Amino acid sequence: MHRVLPVKNIITLLVCTFIIPLNLTLSVEAKQESSTKKPCIVTWIELTDSIAPISISGEYVTDTFQEGLKLIKKRQYKAAFAFLSPLVQQNDGGAMVLLASMHLRGCGCNEDFERGISLLQRAAESGFLPAYYYLTLLYIWHPQYKDFIKAEEIARKATIKDNGYCCSRLFERWIREGGREEEILVILKCMLNLMRDDTMRSSSEIKENLRLLTGEGAKHHLLRQKIMGIISGYINSEIWAQETYLDILFFDKKYLECEEAALLLIQKETTTYPYFVLAHLYSEFIPNKQQEAYDYATTGANKGCIRCLWLLIDMFSNPSRYAQLTKKTPNYEEAYKWLLVAADADSTYHAHILLSKFHIDGLGCEENLDVAAYWLEMAINGKSPYASEFIEELENRGRKETKVREFLHIYELRSKSMKN
Questions:
Q1: Are 372 and 339 in contact (CB under 8 A)?
Q2: Which of 202, 249, 306, 371 has CA atoms 20 to 30 A from the CA of 47?
Q3: What does the alpha-carbon distance between residue 94 and residue 174 come to, in Å, rounded to a whole number?
């Protein structure tokens, strides 16, 4: 049985999505793409005995790849050679990677690092892009063949072709397993270089990995300072550097410095992000400034900042968090007003779920089940991840509330008519 979430809990869930961590960006195109992909198969291969197994997934896990890997894991190396060699001749990147792993580890043959590297290079050039990651990994972490210059060269080349995959995976691995400072700086330089190319996937992916480092805590404090030094050269001209700079100050709990930096960036008018940072700081972290929080959130929202929109919605729906501003009284009329703006501006369709909820219960607007059904239908068509959970909650409520049963009936009839 599903527990019914009151509107303030639903909004808190949505605000956590948009406000924590800072600067989270989502794209509806990415959602639509993921909804049509086949289930992602993830498997693991060992390149060398000295480096932990690495994952491979998605389109690269073909039937032939799985068959070759199965033979290697069963230590049937002669059969694996016989199976993989013709595929290598056919320029099969996956077969090259598997054969490379055998040469690198000396499985069923003499250990031959040069042959393994050659096969990985061919695999990358054939379009098997994860091979760039494996190559860079070897040159950074292999005890015998460390070469940071080569690693940086390969990672830099990879960023042109693999849209950030190589650098992101290396960075995640370093965060997970640790390593020396010079190792992460190889990756970091490439990541920061990639940030200058404003492609949606690479930019958002690299930002999230930078955030892993900046939010990790005291053990990465010195590295955070080094990152600050690196990005300082980009702050005047690059939006991503400005936003990362604010994030680092925030995660280091340097709230007054973060406030000062955000105020300076507002004068540059290059990004709306400082409005959100100031609103967020004033609402919870710097005392006696909740009116300023509202003012900056409103200005940012009017300038098109989605995060500011959701902060405003949270302010008026969860008044206990903003007592100085709201006097602990919900103002659903204001929340509803900003939800309508969010429905037009935000491509994630979260606002549509809440608009449906508001119209069912008459929160800040008229109780109108037809309008509520319209907003829910919009959310489902937009593939909102909260739609199915919301319907389950309504079904649970419908056991006790006639109004909700009536709404579900209206929605069902509307859905059937649309299909016909």
A1: no
A2: 202
A3: 25
